Amino acid sequence: MQYTSIFLAALAATTTLAAPGNPASSLNNKLQVILSGPSVHPSTNILRAGKRIEQPPSPNNNNGPFSTVELVVGANVQNQAYRCQILDPASKPLIIQRGANTDTTFADGDAGKWTLKSPSAVSKIICDPTFVKASASASEIRVQLSNQRIELGIQQTFTGGVREEKTVASGPFTTVEIEVGALVQKQDTRCQVVDKAGKPIVATRGANTDITFADGDKGEWKFQRESEVSKVICDPAFVAGGSA
Question: Which of 135, 140, 167 has the alpha carbon at shortest distance from 154?
Fold first, then answer.
């Protein structure tokens, strides 16, 4: 009789732990995103796994500045490689680091917190099953020179963060496109294309005409005339509105 009582008590305890209303059990199917900072209360968001979800930090008036973020993927979530992202007040993805990894999306991996490259307010948290780890090219700036008329195109790769110049051995070209990788700190980095006479080439995109060119996710810039190119310069000191 004593053994029966012990068994029933153990069974009741196990049932209680596994019950749907138990907080620890309910988190096994969820994602937790925990934002922390030295001078703010931690923010913990609990999100449902399985589809893209966007939320402001919880509570809504607690937007930082934060210096770390951690993702805890519940034990019963099918995709244990789930990744999330945090956006700054301008809706730009924040760059985060953990060990040797730098990215704009972060995973759990039982490896603890990620550190924001620079402490920041956070406007939104996004968790999406389609997010993947950044590729090596995410840290690069790529400059594509093209001329569809003669089916010519070349690409130059820059590291970003410092002034770099690269020579060009072919041409002529009619367009240039700048692609700034997501992990490049200065997303508005601009580049310049120089002709064979050493003069900056003037190009237009929409209502903008300039001698330095940015990405902005708006596609290619068109040269005012077909031109040979001697070199490409990318420099974080370049600004819009240079004399054309």
Answer: 167
pLDDT in tens, 171-202: 899 999 999 998 888 999 999 999 999 999 99
Most distant CA atoms of the chain, gap in Å? 101
Of 180, 189, 188, the residue nearest 138 (C-alpha): 180
* 24-49 residue pLDDT tens: 568 888 999 999 998 888 899 999 99
Tokens (6 digits) for 242? 């240079």
Interior/surface letters 182-200, b for 16+ CB within 10 angstroms, e for the rest: bbbeebebbbbbbbeeeeb
- Placement of tokens 């008329």 in the chain: 149
68-107 residues labelled b (16+ CB within 10 A) or e (exposed): bbbbbbbeebeeeebbbbbbbeeeebbbbebeeeebbbbb
